[in-house]
TrEMBL record:
Natural source organism: Roseburia inulinivorans
Protein's UniProt name: Autoinducer 2 import system permease protein LsrD
GO molecular function: transmembrane transporter activity
Lineage: Bacteria, Bacillati, Bacillota, Clostridia, Lachnospirales
Keywords associated with the record: Cell inner membrane, Cell membrane, Membrane, Transmembrane, Transmembrane helix, Transport
Cellular compartments per GO CC: plasma membrane
Subcellular location: Cell membrane
Pfam families: BPD_transp_2 (PF02653)
Membrane topology designation: Multi-pass membrane protein
Amino acid sequence: MSGISSNEKKSKHKGMLNWNLFLIVVILFEFLIFGAANQKFLNISSMFRSMNDFVPIGIIGIFVTLVMITGGIDIQAGSIVGLTSIIIGVAWQDWGMNIWAAVVLAIVIAILCGTLTGFFIAYCGVQAMVATLGGSFLYAGLALMVSTLSDTPSYMGITNFPDAFRNITKFKIGTISPGPVLVFVIIAVIMGIVLHKTKYGRKIFLVGVNQNAGEFSGINTKRVILSTYVLSAVGAAIAGIVLTSYYNVAKSDLGSTFTMNIITIVVLGGTLSTGGKGNVFGTVLATIIIGLIKFGLPLCFGINSQYLDAPIGILLVVVLLGRALMVHPAFINYRAKLKNKRQKAA
């Protein structure tokens, strides 16, 4: 596994640290600006309620980070969220299954969805964008089909889940309901260790840097790529479980609007869309940034929530343009000249 030199590793590590520090500064500015505009922004209970609505997207983003480090992309995760949710509801209410058995069934089906898409990408050579776009339509259709098996109209959703299931996310510490955020933190820690401290994580990076080099190093790169889509589907299933528990409703279209937000937090977090670079901590910081934007803009500046996709989209475009500029030969040469001038002046 010598496809990445030590100098390249040090350079990428330094680049990630610098980017993460930049994201931390952005978060501090958000607190400063929104807090100055409206003191209610600093209310911990309100902030947690808002973040609880958004962290399921961050959960998916953590797993999609692995996919994008390999050079792939996953735009089907939102559909798997809805499929997971409606399977839990129908299996519990209409098929008479125990709620935890319904949860296990939903996770197994999500794994099968991720395996199917990952197989087409890794072993059949289908482009990730095409395969996951097709998967998005397929799994959204399956979710809608499953919803027709219920006596409850699909537009109403299945509600009144057992307290044990709802308590996953609804338990309180004082006035705060930290359930979804706590799940997010636990997953971030686990996946951070997996990605940055294990052989499997190093294989993911090497596949993203140079898949051929990975093959020559004895890595089954196709299996690694397949596994990232399976994990992404698991992440979507976890998000579906969290949302279903938190809102106490199972719907087939839950998660249908997540795609742009997922890709934005992964890219904003420092993961290259071309693969080979990324980190879980960056994705976590990006999740906080977007979550605070969605909380702060309506509260502090009266912006209607239905227009919040506009600033998120602008942010995604700016980050992508900035990344393209930083790797442009002219910009690289300009930076090299500045560095040489500084060295001569010293």
